[in-house]
Amino acid sequence: MKRVCEPLIIGRVVGEVLDSFTQAQDMEVTYNHDKHVFNGRQFFPSVVASKPKVNVLSGDLRSFFTLVMTDPDSPGPSDPYLREHLHWLVTDIPGSTDASFGKEEVVYEAPLPNIGIHRFVFALFMQRARRTVVALPTARDRFNTRRFADENGLGVPVAAVYFNSQKETAARRRRMV
């Protein structure tokens, strides 16, 4: 069992979004087949426009997980009054598989930060059993990961990772085309 990574504390993910936890599962998040998400890594919106592949590397097919992806800096880091904005929610992911085997409750919304550098957090929770997540969000804005986990009996996360993103300049977008 690994102690929660210091980058989650330094990046204020633990504290603002999640309570302190001990990492009990391994999770891998990858965009475009080769862009791995590591705590604090910078991605431009063009790189994260498509849904990532999220692998739950541990557990077994009898254990189920919920994946939450949020932006705690919405609409901007200096005044995040919409904290948190829900970008993706997948439930019933069997252990040792990826999120595509789960039930997408809230479809993936690509990160498009307008102001400042935003953090995008992936939190993985272990479910008590399949189909136990029933209190689903009614809106993306003002989502609260802690409250959602509490309402669904998920407890603290078993894994988490985050990346940073900011608006691309027009010159950078032109170079990408």
From TrEMBL:
PROSITE patterns assigned to the protein according to its UniProt record, in alphabetical order: PBP
InterPro entries: PEBP, PEBP-like_sf, PEBP_euk, Phosphatidylethanolamine-bd_CS
Classification via Pfam families: PBP
Chain segments annotated as coiled-coil in the UniProt record: none
Superkingdom of this protein's organism: Eukaryota
Family: Belongs to the phosphatidylethanolamine-binding protein family.
Protein name per the record: CEN-like protein 2
Upper classification of the organism: Eukaryota, Viridiplantae, Streptophyta, Embryophyta, Tracheophyta
Gene that encodes the chain: CET2
